[in-house]
Amino acid sequence: MSRKRRQYSGEFKAKVALAALKGEQSTSEIAAHFEIHPTMVSQWKRELLDNATGVFESKSSGKTAQKTQEEIDTLYREIGKLTVERDFLSRGLGR
Prior knowledge:
By secondary structure, the chain is mostly helical. It contains four helices and no strands. The chain has helices at 10-22, 27-34, 38-51, 53-92.
C-alpha cells in the first residue's frame, strides 16, 4: 500500500524556516519537533532566504503587474484587429 505525500501550507513552511533561521535548535531537533524530514527544514530555510527580497518588492510590483496586464490587453486587441483585417483581405483575393 502506497503512502500519499503530505502537503504543507505556506504558513507551516514559514514557521519551520523561521525556527531554523533563529538557530536556537539544530536542524534535527526542529525536524523532530515538527515531525518532518531534516532535509525539508534545510530546503525551506534556503528557499526563504532566496526569496526574502520579494517580500519587500511586492508593494511596488502591484502597479507594475497592473501596467503589464494593460499592455497585454492592448496587444490582444491589436492582434484581434489585425486578424479581422487579414481575413477580410483574404476573402477579397478569393482565397
